[in-house]
Amino acid sequence: MDLSKQATLSTPLDGGAVSSPSSRTSGTETPEPFFSPSPTDDLEPALNEHRAVGGTASIVGAVPLVDDKDGNNEAAPSELHEPKATSLVRADFDLHESAGQHNPTKPGGAKEASPSRPAPNRKKWWLAGLGAVGGVVLIVVVLSVVLGNDPPSDPITGLYADFSTGVSLVTEYHVDCRVRNRLAQTTIKLEVANALNCSSIHSLSLQLPLNTRIASLETNADEGECTTVGRVQHLEQARETFLESASQGLPGAYVEARASSTRTIQVSIPPFGKTRVTLVVEQLLQQRLGEVEFELPLAPNEDVDDIKFDLSVLDTDGEPVLFELDLNVPGVYVTDENATQVLDPISLSVPDARQYKIPKVLSGKFKPSAIEESGYLYTDGRCFEHYFRPATVDSMRRNLVFLIDTSNSMRWHDKLAAAKIALAQFVDTLRPDETFTIQAFGSKGTEDLWGSAYGTDEEKSEAKKFIGNLSAGGWETNLHEAFLEALLRAKHDVENSDDDVVTILVTLSDAYATRGVTNRRKIAKHIFDLNSDSSVKIFNMGFRDSADMQLLDAIALMNGGLSSPIVQGRDFSDQIGNFLQSELGEILLSDVSLSYETISGARVYGETQSKLPVLADGYEVVTRGLIESDESFEHQLEALTQAYTTNGIMDWKVSAAPTVDESASSSLCFQSYASDRITQLMRLHEAADFIGDDLTKNFVILKNDCKSEKFRDCVKQEALDLAIEANLVVKGLTAMVTVDEKKCATPDEDAEICVDGMSPDGVTFRPSYSDQSGEEADLEYHNDAAAESAPMAPYSSDSPRSTYYYSASWRLQSYTALALAAIVSSFLLMHI
Length: 832
Description:
The protein is of the alpha+beta class. The chain has 15 helices and 34 strands. A hairpin with a 2-residue loop joins strand 10 (252-259) and strand 11 (262-269). Helix 4 (122-147) runs antiparallel to helix 15 and helix 10 (549-558) packs across helix 12. The chain is globular. The two termini are 27 Å apart.
């Protein structure tokens, strides 16, 4: 018999049955570890001698057999978990009788005399393990000393433009906000000081509101005599321009869009010098629910010592207007409960800002004066802006189908609880002559269903009970089936509704499609094919951190609706409720179309929107576009708005002559247009992955004829050209960098960029960004299925300019990982 197998068996002398270890019941007591004897050990003489006296030869770890009343050899049940060893085998292992023993006793019985095998000596293993760990730690320390500050042989690749070098500090931070009509302009002035005799790079980021653009950027050194101005360049070119300036010891700044609401600012500071930066950001505002809301960047995403803040709000006529401000910081500013609205400008100075929790973004709102019923139109002969909001139209009836995600991820951060609150509140606003349906989906397209029913008090009460009982469960999401089933229900309602009823499908989602049809292109196409007549307007909401916002936006775009992300850091129920009320509250118009023409026949092109699915009460339509002008300023512009109402189709007309204005208003109109147009074009560029080039052509008219095989390439190129012309920073396309156009700064050829807080001692070590093209970045972005809130795609490390900065933090991370790996390995060795 193979002795290695023999160690698990008990050999009866009389040929009785053998008890297999696998047939034992597992217990709470773990047998002592056993080390099998070598096959060369001679155990047979001892075993034979033991058999001669009628004993049972037990191998270590086996259960002794006893005779039952029928004469069979069986293990006693109470001993099934009692590992024992005999003195015979102890001799073969050279184990002394004085060694510690493990000899469990039966309940109520006396201790058995037979000794058991002693436990292994773990003290030696612990000492060996500790010695190994100590050796690894010693090696890490020696490597740290030997390597010192020398740069690595292999470059380190950075992902984003957010690295800092050297030691620097933001010593001043001043925010000046001015809200004028439909524009919020914020000027941020900061001063950054360098503590070292090398060129430092300081990085900080700003949390900006949506629809915010970088309008201008300037820098100057501490002398203040030489000012560099910001210029928008292609992403890679702007990065190289900034690093070239920093490597020459010159002051400079670089701004890049990391996401739709995040801007990264890098500032280069001369040796022992200061750099003053002036950054101007602008937010386009729009009226919703009769109010204009604004958001202002108050503090950067890092602690600063000193913050100054000024705010003034003016109406269309240039006069101060009452406004509300969401700012409550004890010790700094607390809103008066008896006076929620403020008329006078606000001015704050917080020299000890680190002691307070200063909000990154400040929110406020005001009620603007009313505009004409036919709208307001402005043009400077090149650019135009059209504002439209009817006030004397009766509300249309609504038929609403709510499609609510109840997959398990809706449990996180109380997303479903917030959705239930907002939905129940919105249900209360329905009129008795309006109908609604609630469909919950998860792994199935329909997990629960309520309705369809009229908005009577009784039905609304039952619906709110149904909403309150919704619960999240299941780890898969069948978006495809959910959309199509909800769309079938909505289209059935359309067939049985009057002409003055607007049917709207409202979706709230928290996940990607993981069950059923998961191909995003197929999902979008199937929905579009079923709703090809656009009889159902589709409005989508998604939690930006987890939902497939690209798909939701494409579906809304293809089906005459809108989409909106729900972001972290703000009350979920408020965001959901505000979207429902502002977009789908009292519906005044449906199937809105806007058209523009000049009396002289000059071409009007590039409109930011020409169709709108519905228009709710309190909502303001804003359309911007360009006029092909010969600079004569003689093109009177006419705007025509047409829409369905409760009384049938209605028209509204308004005209305007060009306003010759060579001041900031003219360039402001063009920049506002460019910002809106680029947003529209990039949205279409992303949606082209789902709807294809042929269908994309139906949603936009480009400035020039497309000569590329892919229409989406022409869409992106027009966005890039417009960003360069209007000097706008666009995520993934452009960045703004300061340029010394007057050549007033004196480069320091001996300057070096700080590494590890000190000069690299004559070894020029220049950090850099990577060289991945924007197209490749976009491709990775789409393949990653990233939502808008997702960070920009990583840059490639294949470029010769892909070296990143090398710092003590890198070494600390590397050595810590190495030490942890060694410790884990040592513990594993101790237990082998």
